[in-house]
Specification:
With about 150 residues, the protein is of the alpha+beta class. About 40% of the residues lie in helices and about 30% in strands. The protein has one domain (about 5-145): Roll (Nuclear Transport Factor 2, Chain: A), CATH 3.10.450.590. Strands 1-2-3-4-5 form a five-stranded antiparallel β-sheet. The two termini are about 25 Å apart.
Length: about 150
Amino acid sequence: MNGLFVKIGNSTIDHTIRKSIGLSLVVSVVLAGCVSGDSDFPELQINQALRVIDALSKGNSEEVYSEFSEDLQATLPIEELTKIWADTIDDLGEFAEVSKISTHPTGIREKGAVSVLLWCHFDRGNASFLMEVSEDGSIILFSNSGEI
């Protein structure tokens, strides 16, 4: 599988409910709609990227930071990761949901790694986050791709 796009359309679910179930809903839709015996489906990598966004949205960056590779931790201290999220919230408001996911096998930094691009909806706008996740689930790249 070369890529995966998932779009969660506008829903009438109350905002506070969407905020708490948004990531679970995305995972359910992705898995229910896309798993068809394809052994290349990057389920682990998608789940890891979603876990990072979920932890950041709850103010728990420590929860997932240990899963960042040593190289990434050396270039992106936890304070900087927390600041990236805080700056995003300052600009765009509270996190609401992941609205789209795109994956692509990369192998640039590590053989078998997958790039996961998450389009995230906030109260006052949207931003995207790019992560590269290794075969074993280690986060080897994290980038705020900016406001979209």
